[in-house]
Amino acid sequence: MFASIVPRYDTINTLMTLGLDRRWRRQTVAMAEPAGGIALDIATGTGELARELDRAGARLTIGMDFCIEMVGAAQRKFAAIDACGNLRLGVGDAMALPFAGETFDCIVNGFMLRNVADLGATFAELYRVLKPGGRLACLDLTPPRGPMRRAFSLYIASAVPLLGIVVGRKYAAYRYLFQSLSIHPDAERVAAMMREAGFAEASFRIAGFGTVAIHLGRKAARVA
Ligand SMILES: C[S@@+](CC[C@H](N)C(=O)[O-])C[C@H]1O[C@@H](n2cnc3c(N)ncnc32)[C@H](O)[C@@H]1O
Predict the structure, then answer these.
(1) Within a domain: residue 172?
(2) What is the structure's pLDDT at 139?
(3) Which carries the bigger pLDDT value, residue 105 or residue 145?
(4) Which domain holds residue 62?
(5) CATH number for the domain including 103?
(6) Contact indicator for 202, 191 with CB cutoff of 8 Å
(7) Average of per-residue pLDDT values in the chain
(8) 66 lines ligand 1 (CB under 6 A)
(9) Residue 65 C-alpha to ligand 1 middle, in angstroms?
(10) Which of 68, 172, 176, 189 is most buried as measured by Cβ atoms within 10 A of its Cβ?
(11) Whose CA is nearest to atom 23 of ligand 1?
(12) What's the whole-number mean pLDDT along residues 139-143?
């Protein structure tokens, strides 16, 4: 499904979020504090968050996704911009990462949480590869509450798939967005799952008029 949406992925993302995704990505990366560290963007897709980590001063950034076509799109993008060679890409699964424990200073992901087969196991795996004191920042849609609930449900159930047909010529992949969100846990529950996976601290901020959550998890620092 992800391979099928590669060609128009960035365009539809910008249209669907009215361009707000750029701001949310910047906020997510700022929360992960990547400057000077080794950073992972897991489920990198076309590499937008990885680019943002690089811009924010990560010493080395790895973008990884299990969809080879997405990684190919990111590769083409990076070939044009990665003057210093600090950006790397790889194919791999968020639930079984090909890295030793305690490799990364920070990890980010965008619009991944709703898509993994087992969210608890994914948090445990991300926790494993983070160094003590490391940060995990996750950007994704969240089931909205209050007055936005009806309007957003209507938007995501009808306008988004329509956009998918008109711009991307794909209906099922954008209809899936609605289905995945309808079974996604709310922001409090996601934070609780991060703590269950071992994170010493887990908090979140809400953006996009209540429709987006950015979670931050922190692994406890090693006690000297
Ligand atoms: C909606 S896209 C988001 C792409 C990008 N992170 C962004 O912010 O635009 C979701 C991505 O998650 C990837 N993905 C889903 N499950 C994954 C997993 N278990 N391991 C690695 N990548 C995964 C998909 O291949 C897809 O590229």
Answers:
(1) no
(2) 98
(3) 105
(4) 3-142+185-218
(5) 3.40.50.150
(6) yes
(7) 90
(8) yes
(9) 6
(10) 176
(11) 43
(12) 94
Return the higher-pLDDT residue of 2 and 131.
131
CA of 41, closest atom in ligand 1? 6
Phi, psi of 14 (to 5 degrees): -65, -45
- For residue 161, being part of any structural domain is answered with no
Number of domains in the chain: 1
- Asked whether 177 lines ligand 1 (CB < 6 A), one says no
The 3 state secondary structure assigned to 170-192 is: CCHHHHHHHHHHHCCCCHHHHHH
Tell me, yes or no, if the pTM score tops 0.90.
yes
* Domain-located, residue 117: yes
- What residue's CA is closest to ligand 1, atom 26? 45
Distances, alpha carbon 41 to alpha carbons 55, 89, 179, in Å = 13, 9, 25
Among protein residues, the one whose CA lies closest to atom 8 of ligand 1: 110
Asked whether residue 32 is assigned to any structural domain, the reply reads yes
pLDDT value of position 204: 98
Say what the pLDDT of residue 174 is. 66
Decide if pLDDT at 167 tops 70: no
Question: What is the token pair recorded at 43?
Answer: 């489920």
105, two tokens: 């200073």
